[in-house]
Amino acid sequence: xxxxxxxxxxxxxxxxxxxxxxxxxxxxxxxxxxxxxxxxxxxxxxxxxxxxxxxxxxxxxxxxxxxxxxxxxxxxxxxxxxxxxxxxxxxxxxxxxxxxxxxxxxxxxxxxxxxxxxxxxxxxxxxxxxxxxxxxxxxxxxxxxxxxxxxxxxxxxxxxxxxxxxxxxxxxxxxxxxxxxxxxxxxxxxxxxxxx
Length: 196
Known about the structure:
By secondary structure, this protein is α/β, with parallel strands linked by helices. The chain has seven helices and ten strands. The chain is 32% helix and 23% strand.
């Protein structure tokens, strides 16, 4: 099965083309260049969009805008190509790339997303001494987490990226792309404002 996988929920978007479990190509960029990355992956593999059989898409939590970009691209491609899609948590993809580590995504507003998903202040994480934390939230709050006893790999360690190859590996329950739902991890700002 030829699967196009991508995640745009964090500050660094990842994409991969996976054929029968083999990674045919991978890219790391920004959400704004996702379609360019998809085109490059297909050309690199000598494939065409019509060859795709499924999509595996990061559903967050992470950046609201980034998550929406990924879902919009998935819905557009799913409709145009007539292929099914499966959503994969960005936290789950991070965990798959760093077995035993705690995935930590920057939630902005001085908060982080952790498995659950839960949103909390970085000081509330309280990792056990020696716990490895990965992700852009672990990088942003390195000093605080290391002071609490966590171990954070170097900034350029690939375990900090939600690699799209893991989305393809974790994807199941493929269905219509328009049914994919984002994982926001907290109430959207617009709802908070409206509640005031």
